[in-house]
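Q: Here's a chain of 409 amino acids. Please give me its 3D structure as tokens.
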Amino acid sequence: MPEAQICRASGAPLTVVLDLGQQPLGNGFRAPDDTSAEYTYWLRCGFSEVSSLFQLIEQPDPAVMFHDAYAFRSSTSAGMRAHFQAHAERIIDERLGDRTDPFVVELGCNDGIWLRHFADRGIRHAGIEPTGEPAEAARAAGVDVVQEFFTADLGTRLRAEHGPAAVIYAANVMCHIPDIRGVADGIAALLDDDGLLVFEDPYLGDVIRLGSYDQIYDEHVFLFSALSVQAIFADAGLELIDLEPLVTHGGSMRYTLGRHGRHAPRPAVAQILEQERLQGLDRTDTYLSFAQRVRASATALLEALQRARAAGHTVAAYGATSKSTTIYAYAGITSEHIDVILDNTPNKIGLVSPGAHIPVVDEAEFQTRRPGVTFLSAWNHQREIVQRHAWYAAQGGVWLTHVPEVHEL
């Protein structure tokens, strides 16, 4: 059986459960006059009942996705800034207060949105960030950055240079790393005996419940459940000791792990593992049913946009997100259906979206353009966006979303 058909965690055969067709890179925004061939790949998803792990069958080379000009910046969202500040302060107060000279590591620190709070307090730290521009932004915020991909070797080197880590953290990063077993080994090499691994990622249970198939794109090689996290890290001697559902990114889970037997698991662990079994997250048929719902959702969204056009409305999207790339490519949505994408990320404005080639414009143009219908592609920031632009609905504008089904807000 070809390597691509094998589970990255267990080595067991995968069952193909979802096929989203040929896709461009989720963050592959480009200049309007760029006529070079656009990179595409086949976005198929597989599932292993051995590991309970939902994963991409093929994934582009990480160097293609995460490069010096990588466009995503965590700090562009006020909600995310508040989220990371609150969590950093919690870690400092609850986990580091009784430690002498602790060392903290973040995998994929992006622009330093989390680690800057440790840097400001003089806490020893290292931010692992392979992409150039985000790494520079983190350094400008006072963060010590190691510009590499995290591997087992790097985990060993960091321990030799800085000592063991009291806390290793990752936010929306662990699901990006195809060599998940190598990462687990690197974390095990770096972590203090009583240290904690804390990471948060989009939660598979919420994706299945909400039908939010846009969480599936090139960067998200995995969508985790507690069942799969438990299986992945067991071989590295780590066990789940806490689980915390989050609202970020349309539904995430924060996983806390420690060395086996060093911490008493909290009741949430057993509770959520049982909920996942009841939801069927350990069964292949759950994902085959999900695939049918995805097809129906994509068809309904395309038809809603076509109706808006037929009624003479101008149509915009709000949020030049990586996630929406999957929707546009799978549903067949192009600049014929959406005029512009409104966004506040400076290095995306003036570009066109991957595949669909819809122009990205400054969100400041929202009031001047006043589209009749706006697809909320950044639906996971719905409350923040809709509240900030309360004038839009008050003046007759229509928000359109596809979660949990295609409907107007």
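Q: Can you summarize the key feature?
A: The two ends are 47 Å apart (CA to CA).
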